[in-house]
Write a structure and sequence with these properties.
The structure holds 2 protein chains of 2 kinds.
Chain A lengths: L11 H11 L6 H12 L7 H8 L3 H10 L11 E6 L2 H5 L2 H12 L12 E6 L11 E3 L2 E3 L4 H13 L1
Parallel strand pairs in A: 1-2
Antiparallel strand pairs in A: 1-3, 3-4
Chain B lengths: L5 E6 L2 H5 L2 H14 L5 E6 L11 E4 L3 E3 L7 H11 L8 E2 L6 E2 L6 H4 L17 H6 L4 H9 L2 H11 L11 H10 L6 E6 L8 H8 L1 H15 L3 E6 L4 H16 L15 E6 L9 H8 L23 E5 H13 L1 H5 L9 E8 L5 E6 L4 H8 L9 E6 L6 E3 L9 H6 L8 E6 L4 H15 L5 H18 L7 H15 L3 H5 L2 H9 L1 H9 L15 H5 L6 H10 L2 H11 L3 H7 L3 H5 L2 H4 L5 H15 L14 E5 L3 H12 L3 E6 L7 H4 L8 H15 L3 E3 L4 H11 L7 E5 L18 E4 L1
Parallel strand pairs in B: 1-2, 7-8, 7-10, 8-9, 11-15, 16-17, 16-19, 17-18, 19-20
Antiparallel strand pairs in B: 1-3, 3-4, 5-6, 11-12, 13-14, 13-15
The chains are: A alpha+beta, B alpha/beta.
Chain lengths: 161, 752
């Protein structure tokens, strides 16, 4: 991750609202963290302490959970999150080549976000659309049966739109 | 003619949506309105399991199955089929091998040879409407259980059916239920494990997307049997549509009174909570999953105590896979007796497999236990596409193993797979063809498990790392003698001593590939070769690695792309003096290994060679410069076939004076006399020989290669006083013994 990313302000007021929503609920930590990430984009390290207070745990415990799950992020992510599938079916049908092309196209390595916060590139263990391998997901849209031409079309139409 | 009332079902599972299923659905609806068709409705279903053909559309009541439907096809489906009763033939499914169009869903081999119990409703009902499920007999089992059976009777019924856990290990379901039922305590939990993390498995996602109520009904029955008041459904967050449909199903189920207080007046209270995973594979392990529900790091813990006595929150808990729970309503509804006759004696019922990878019909397959691998892969799956050879099938995801072709006739059930070193696991079945490197596949799975290992126990944390390092070294061509044995030793230790299922099973891919494909490991280590041309570090490119003469294919293809044909043909001639001939009749193993072929079609390497060779002979009129003669020795090459000519070509390139002797009046050997001229015209051969003759300078002498004459011929070219060499490239239709004339020669190479 390059150092000059200007992180958008993390909305602590909304964070308080979300924490209040989960107050008193049993085992609410992970759903709460997921909600924070859904609404605010990521879990700011500064949010760990108020979240811990909200659910009645130590900050270290919350930090432990955040760092354990690959689905939880502590840095801002791009507006478009591209996840290239590295499942077995994708792997044997050329998923590695797809990842290489996407890396070139976005000029990003795995886990990186572009400085303008347009794209984040990640890989995912399997999205379960193996019949259409190789696949990738951009935000909530799944793209299957990828080939270099189709990748080109997808990214061109997105940058126009 | 009056048309019957029709329902058009558009598949809206994740896979079909990615192909445009939503757009098809909307296009059909607006087209229906636009064309004013009244006796038809457009509806949608979840996954049919034949995702590769998607987006899929089924028109009932006929059961016509349309594949690869695009929004533009809506006009024809409405205009021709719904209005006039003429199905749209161009959208029919086609047999992969014969290309024969098949109209009916029920007649497609992929479906016809399956027996669908767990997937019985998938693709036939609207998953977002509980009435559809009830219409198919849904919640009948729950009514029966609540009205007429005690928890003990339900467990007894499940026990009689012989149902075993579909999550992988195959533990008897009734036994788990009974332990949990017998455990003391007022609060108990039941959990549905829908954290389907195995790469290559997607049946749980499909079931939740296409028929969520079946799983819910199973979970409620399970809750009743063990005496739990709360159920959890733990779904991966990577399956957003499944999460959405399960939540919707829950809501409807509550409205209808199948959930909540005093269900159907029985006095039984039950609620279900949906929990989304957060991207940790290890959470598919039961104790890790429970830790994750409790909001902790998802790490497994040692058992005992088993979840049945101390699970979620320390209370007795029962956890089952989606497929196990989905089997329960069928068993209760149709009876254990009926169910136990399906499948094999030790593994009754059906198994759902997700066949993917190098397979013609990729998708979900449900067959009775005990069906052979051959039937699943070749009859239902349609075999291997692009004419390639079957190599192995990987079952059970990262915990399973690779089963080679010689076991294709094995019947598949829990026990037979574990005998072969693999497991049933989640039911993922990834088919591998000849272009898959088994060492690389083992490395791939290890990199996955190493990444997903939670790090709690030492054998798994360090063992996976060590094994991955050795495997990576081998795939990079840095393997050493003894590596295979070292891998086996570590694998056995990890298998015996790891804490949870992830660690205990992660050596399986390594052990099975070493067991069945040891020669590939040895080729990597001893010859630094990757037979499947996959391991990058061992080669410049798969095509060059595979080419028998090692032509720098990427270079000559790139030169053609740049328009520099001269550079291209020179690149080919560095390794092969016959570009025009090989451009026509080479069996091009390079194209079989071409990476581009995995995505669509391979680069037409042979045709490009032909093109550039033809360009040369048509456009370059100047004779090429002969190679300079830098050596004083002379060499005789006897036999003017491809071998002899190539030999002469390369000898001259090295600076030797060379003469080729040929018995027949024409050169080219078998190329001229054995390959029919419609396949390889004589003129093409002649041009290449002429080119070689110019470059080689030596004349090709038409002399007999018969023994006596060879002797004379050799004497002609080889003055006695000088020590010279001869290369014999003779062809013979029968075995011939070569004797005396060659004895005096200092070095005699025999090439028959």
């Amino acid at each position: 991750m390059s150092g000059d990313i200007k992180a958008p302000e993390f909305d602590f007021d909304r964070l308080e609202e979300i924490i209040a929503r989960y107050k008193g609920q049993k085992w609410s930590l992970i759903p709460l963290l997921q909600e924070v990430q859904r609404e605010l984009g990521y879990i700011s390290p500064a949010a760990i302490k108020p979240i811990a207070e909200g659910v009645g745990m130590f900050p270290s415990q919350v930090q432990g959970v955040v760092s354990f799950y690959t689905g939880l992020h502590t840095t801002p992510r791009g507006r478009n999150v591209v996840k290239v599938c590295r499942g077995t079916a994708c792997h044997v049908r050329g998923g590695k080549t797809i990842l290489k092309i996407v890396k070139q196209r976005l000029a990003l390595e795995e886990g990186e976000t572009s400085p303008d916060l347009e794209y984040t590139l990640e890989t995912v263990a399997c999205i379960g659309v193996c019949a259409l391998a190789p696949n990738m997901v951009i935000n909530n849209d799944t793209y299957g049966q990828l080939n270099p031409k189709k990748l080109n079309q997808i990214f061109s139409s997105r940058s126009r739109g | 003619m009056q048309q019957p009332q029709r329902i058009v079902y558009v598949c809206r599972g994740t896979a079909c949506i990615s192909g445009g299923g939503n757009a098809v659905y909307e296009a059909l609806q607006s087209e229906l309105e636009h064309q004013g068709v009244e006796n038809a409705t457009i509806d949608f279903t979840g996954c049919h399991g034949f995702c590769q053909q998607g987006p899929n559309v089924v028109v009932e009541p006929e059961g016509i199955f349309y594949t690869h439907v695009q929004p533009e096809d809506a006009a024809d489906i409405v205009g021709m089929h719904l209005k006039e009763g003429k199905p749209v033939e161009r959208l029919y499914y086609r047999e992969p091998l014969s290309g024969k169009p098949i109209a009916l869903y029920s007649e497609i081999n992929f479906y016809a040879k399956q027996q669908r119990l767990i997937l019985r409703n998938c693709g036939h009902i609207n998953p977002e409407r509980i009435e559809d499920y009830i219409g198919q007999g849904g919640y009948r089992a729950l009514r029966k259980v609540l009205a007429t059976m005690t928890p003990e009777q339900v467990i007894e019924e499940v026990k009689k059916s012989g149902l075993r856990g579909r999550g992988g290990a195959g533990a008897p379901t009734a036994m788990k239920w009974k332990f949990c039922h017998d455990a003391p305590g007022p609060t108990k939990y039941v959990i549905c494990n829908a954290d389907e993390g195995d790469p290559g498995a997607f049946m749980d996602r499909s079931i939740l997307e296409a028929d969520p109520h079946t799983m819910l009904e199973g979970l409620i029955i399970c809750g009743y049997s063990v005496g739990a008041g709360t159920g959890y459904v733990y779904v991966r967050e990577e399956y957003p549509l499944a999460v959405k449909r399960v939540r919707k199903a829950l809501e409807q189920s509550r409205e209808k009174g199948f959930l909540g207080k005093d269900i159907l007046g029985s006095g039984f209270d039950f609620q279900i909570i949906v929990m989304e995973g957060a991207g940790a594979f290890v959470c598919g392990e039961e104790t890790a999953l429970m830790a994750s529900i409790e909001g902790r790091r998802g790490m497994p813990r040692p058992r005992p105590p088993f979840p049945a006595t101390s699970g979620l929150d320390g209370k007795p808990s029962n956890i089952n896979n989606v497929k196990t729970l989905s089997s329960v309503p069928v068993i209760i509804d149709k009876g254990a007796e009926w169910y136990s006759h399906i499948g094999t004696e030790k593994s009754p019922g059906t198994a759902v497999f997700a066949i993917t990878g190098k397979i013609a019909n990729s998708g979900l397959v449900e067959v009775p236990m005990g069906t052979t691998l051959r039937k699943i892969i070749f009859d239902i799956g349609g075999g291997i596409p692009r004419g390639k050879a079957f190599k192995a099938v990987q079952t059970g995801g990262p915990s399973g193993g690779c089963i080679p072709a010689r076991y294709l006739d094995r019947q598949v059930d829990y026990d037979s797979l574990s005998q072969l070193g693999s497991i049933m696991g989640s039911g993922g079945m990834v088919v591998l063809d000849e272009n898959t490197c088994m060492v690389e596949i083992a490395r791939y799975f290890l990199s996955f498990t190493q990444d997903e290992s939670c790090g709690k126990c030492t054998p798994c944390r360090l063992g996976t790392r060590q094994m991955l390092e050795i495997l990576t070294k081998i795939t990079q061509g840095k393997g050493q003698e003894g590596d295979i044995e070292k891998l086996e030793a570590i694998a056995r230790v990890v298998k015996a001593s790891a804490l949870c299922g992830l660690g205990q099973t992660c050596p399986n891919p390594i052990l099975t590939t070493i067991n069945y494909f040891r020669d590939e490991y040895e080729a990597h280590i001893k010859e630094r070769k990757c037979p499947a041309a996959v391991c990058d570090s061992l080669m410049i490119s798969p095509c060059q690695h595979t080419c028998p003469v090692g032509i720098n294919i990427p270079k000559y293809v790139a030169a053609i792309a740049e328009g520099d044909y001269m550079k291209s043909i020179e690149t080919i001639r560095e390794r092969n003096p016959f570009p025009s001939i090989c451009g026509r009749i080479c069996h091009h193993p390079c194209e079989m290994r071409c990476r581009r072929g995995e995505l669509d079609d391979p680069v037409s390497i042979r045709s490009l060679k032909r093109f550039v060779a033809d360009w040369y002979f048509n456009n370059v009129t100047d004779d090429p410069d002969p190679f300079p003669q830098t050596r004083s020795e002379r060499v005789a090459v006897v036999g003017g076939g491809p071998t002899g000519l190539s030999c002469a070509y390369f000898l001259v390139q090295m600076g030797y004076r060379t003469t080729v002797f040929e018995a027949l009046p024409i050169g080219g050997g078998m190329l001229s006399v054995a390959v029919p001229s419609f396949r390889l015209p004589a003129a093409v051969i002649q041009k290449e020989i002429d080119y070689i003759a110019i470059v080689v300078v030596a004349k090709i002498k038409a002399k007999s290669a018969k023994e006596a004459q060879v002797e004379k011929a050799l004497k002609d070219v080889l003055p006695e006083a000088r020590k010279e060499k001869a290369f014999l490239s003779l062809s013979s239709l029968w075995e011939e013994r070569l004797s005396t004339p060659f004895q005096p020669l200092p070095l005699c190479l025999l090439w028959l």
